[in-house]
Amino acid sequence: MVRDSVPAMQRRAAALDAEAAFPAEDVAALRRAGVLAAPVPERFGGTGAGTEPGGAALAFELLRLLGEGSLAVGRLFEAHVNALRLALRYGTEAQARRAAADALAGLLFGLWVTDPPGERLRRKDGRLRGRKGPCSGAGHCTRALVTVKETDGTRMALVALGGNEPITGDAGALQGMRAASNGTVDLTGLAAPDESLLGAPGDYLREPEFSCGAWRTTAVTLGGLDALVGATREHLVRRGHADAPMQQARFGQMLIARETARLWTEQAAHSAERPEGSAAGRIATVNMARLAVEAACLDAIRLAQRSLGLAAFVRPNPVERLARDLGTYLRQPAPDAVLLEVGAHGLTQVTGDPADA
């Protein structure tokens, strides 16, 4: 079903981008098809996509296809999976069952863990005080996993949203990913009793879960790269440039970049979800994949823009939007620190292969 929906998602993407509008029709379609319930573990009635090792292949396919259809939708679903996974991993049995039931009912989960500069979300008397932002899906998610500053450290909390939380900031201020409805949400007064807290202090950043989860973001990115390659090909063929030697050479380089990204992402997914192997080695593999896919995407953007010329910068050419969305989505946190971690870990291995650790 998701594969068949990709063309329609792509057709809607231009208008959603122009209006910085939430992809409500696309998310509703995912809800009807049971995709929002797919991450629920099998024991609760789902398929475990992205939350159990046996569901990794399905999660990879869903994330890649949604990224191809719309990077904004892919981002929303990736956050949904991530929030559910954390609730299932660190929550009590009762908390896990509640989260699973909500997902089976088609509720959309947000992962809101970024604090505005100089602010920290806190709790007092069972209520939240403060803001989170930017938050993908602001105003549209019905559940949110947030990080809260407590006296004993940073805790996770899974809270129900009322839908009327004040949102500040312009969702269209970002250059790309405008349809992801990013905004700063004021959560002050929202109920967050002790039973909403998940796990122990520091669990959100606990390794290897924290770093290994980046493979899912990378899978969405790969889908965006698929869309860019497809849009570039369509433009060149439509304009009658498919026989030009330099266009063929550049497109060949784009295909190589995409295949490189695919191989790295598949390896990252396998390494992250397999039970064997050291935590350090698995983290290193996912980190290398993240950086390799970023490089492949940046190369592909450059090649697409060189091939199309000025047309690649004129709306409503899909390459113009895809380059903005992909370039924005690639700005994941701390790439320099990730590179240093990869190099430092590799230098400690006798074989020189970080994945062997």
Model description:
The protein has 2 domains: 2-205, Butyryl-CoA Dehydrogenase, subunit A, domain 2 (Beta Barrel); 209-356, Butyryl-CoA Dehydrogenase, subunit A, domain 3. Helix 8 (245-273) packs antiparallel against helix 9 (279-308). The protein starts with a helix and ends in an 11-residue tail after the last helix. Strand 2 and strand 3 form a beta hairpin. It has 357 residues and is α+β, with helices and mostly antiparallel strands. Strands 1-5-6-9 form a 4-stranded mixed sheet. Strands 4-8-7 form a 3-stranded antiparallel sheet, with no helix packed on it. It has a two-stranded antiparallel ribbon with strand order 2-3. Helices cover 52% and strands 11% of the residues. It contains 11 helices and 9 strands. The mean pLDDT is 94.
Walk me through the topology:
Layout lengths: L1 H18 L4 H9 L23 H14 L1 H20 L2 H12 L4 E4 L9 E3 L2 E3 L1 E5 L7 E8 L2 E8 L6 E2 L14 E4 L10 E2 L10 H4 L1 H25 L6 H29 L5 H30 L9 H12 L5 H12 L11
Parallel strand pairs: 1-5
Antiparallel strand pairs: 2-3, 4-8, 5-6, 6-9, 7-8
Let me know the number of strands: 9
Rg over alpha carbons: 20 Å
Q: What structural class results from the helix and strand content?
A: alpha+beta
CATH architecture designation of the largest domain: Beta Barrel
Report the uncertain regions. Answer: none
Strand content: 5-15%
Overall pLDDT confidence: 94
CATH superfamily of the largest domain: Butyryl-CoA Dehydrogenase, subunit A, domain 2
